[in-house]
User: Which sequence fits this backbone?
C-alpha cells in the first residue's frame, strides 16, 4: 500500500542572541536592543520583557537566514529584569535570556560640615534629591585625606540613601576629603577641605606691675594652654587694641604697651578659632600716675649752725601720688 503527499522539511533554529551582551539602562529611558537568528524556517517568536508588560509574538514564515530586528522598551521602575527571547518551529524550541539592570542615575547631596574637633567622630550624610533612588548596587569610595580609605562595593542595603558615614581624625590639620559614588549608569565625586582642630583651653592674662606712670612701657603676659589656629585680640582699655592672627599655644608670649595719660585701666582679650570663643582679663585695675616734672629745691641756707632750723621748700611742676624721701 502506497500513499502520496507533501513532506514539510523544517530547518533547525540556530544562532540566536540578544545584543548587546551587557545591558544597563537608566530608568525611564528607552532600551534599544537587537534580536538575531542565524537560520531557521517557519519560526514563531515570543518576547517577554520581564516587567509584567504584555508578551510580544510574531511569525517568520519560510526560510530565515541572518535575521536581525531592533527592539525597544521602556522600564519605569529600577530593578533587575530578564528579557526572554524564544523561537519555535516543528524541529524544536530555543530560548535565550538576557539580564537587564535598570537603575536610577546617581543624584546625591553631601551634607558634611567642614570642621571637626580633634578626635571627635565626624559625620557625613549622603542624601538623594531623587527619593526613588535605585535599590540596586552602588559603590562608595571615601578618601579621608589622612591615608585612610573606606570602600563599599555593590552596596545594596535597601535604598542607598540616606547614607550615614562617620570617621575620626587623630591629629589637627587640614584634610582633603573626597567621596566617589558610582553605579553602572553614572558617577559623582564630592570633595572638600576639612579643618580638624582643638578647642581653646586656659587663656590667661597677667601683668607684673599694677602701678605705672605715663608712657612707662610694661608687659602683658599671655598664655594659652591648648588650641590651634587661634586669633587673639587684646583691648588695653585706652581705645587701643592689638590683634594677633595665629597665637601659639603652650608657650608664654609678652606684649609691650604704655599709656599716654594718667587714669585707671582694665585689660581684656578675646581668643577664638573655629571651635571656640573665649575671653580673659587681667585681674584687677592698672593705675597710671602723672609723671613728675619740674622738681626744684627752694631756699638758700646752704650753711647753718648746728641746732638751728633750716626751712627748705620743694616745688614740683606736675605729678600725682608723689612720695618725698
Assistant:
Amino acid at each position: 500500500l502506497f500513499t502520496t503527499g507533501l513532506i514539510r522539511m523544517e530547518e533547525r533554529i540556530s544562532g540566536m542572541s540578544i545584543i548587546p551582551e551587557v545591558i544597563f539602562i537608566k530608568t525611564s529611558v528607552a532600551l534599544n536592543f537587537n534580536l538575531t537568528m542565524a537560520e531557521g524556517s517557519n519560526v514563531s517568536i515570543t518576547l517577554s520583557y520581564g516587567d509584567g508588560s504584555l508578551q510580544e509574538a510574531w511569525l517568520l514564515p519560510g526560510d530565515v537566514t541572518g535575521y536581525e530586528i531592533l527592539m525597544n522598551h521602556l522600564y519605569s521602575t529600577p530593578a533587575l529584569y530578564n528579557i526572554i527571547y524564544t523561537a519555535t518551529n516543528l524541529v524544536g524550541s530555543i530560548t535565550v535570556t538576557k539580564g537587564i539592570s535598570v537603575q536610577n542615575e546617581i543624584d546625591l547631596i553631601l551634607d558634611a560640615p567642614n570642621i571637626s574637633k580633634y578626635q571627635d567622630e565626624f559625620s557625613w550624610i549622603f542624601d538623594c534629591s531623587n527619593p526613588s533612588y535605585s535599590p540596586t548596587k552602588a559603590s562608595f569610595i571615601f578618601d579621608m585625606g589622612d591615608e585612610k580609605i573606606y570602600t563599599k562595593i555593590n552596596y545594596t542595603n535597601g535604598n542607598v540613601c540616606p547614607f550615614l558615614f562617620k570617621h575620626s581624625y587623630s591629629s589637627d590639620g587640614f584634610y582633603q576629603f573626597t567621596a566617589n559614588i558610582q553605579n553602572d549608569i553614572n558617577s559623582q565625586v564630592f570633595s572638600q577641605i576639612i579643618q580638624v582642630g582643638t578647642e581653646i583651653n586656659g587663656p590667661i592674662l597677667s601683668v607684673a606691675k599694677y602701678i605705672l606712670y605715663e608712657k612707662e612701657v610694661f608687659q602683658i603676659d599671655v598664655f594659652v594652654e591648648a588650641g590651634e589656629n587661634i586669633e587673639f585680640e587684646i583691648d588695653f582699655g585706652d581705645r587701643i587694641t592689638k590683634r594677633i592672627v595665629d597665637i601659639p599655644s603652650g608657650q608664654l608670649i609678652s606684649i609691650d604697651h604704655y599709656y599716654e595719660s594718667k587714669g585707671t585701666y582694665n585689660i581684656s582679650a578675646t581668643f577664638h578659632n573655629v571651635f571656640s570663643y573665649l575671653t580673659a582679663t587681667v585681674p584687677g585695675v592698672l593705675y597710671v600716675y602723672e609723671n613728675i616734672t619740674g622738681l626744684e629745691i627752694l631756699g638758700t641756707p646752704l650753711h647753718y649752725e648746728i641746732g638751728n632750723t633750716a626751712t627748705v621748700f620743694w616745688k614740683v611742676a606736675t605729678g600725682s601720688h608723689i612720695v618725698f624721701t
Remarks:
- Residues 131-135 have pLDDT under 50 and may be disordered.
- The longest strand covers residues 31-48.
- The radius of gyration is 45 Å.
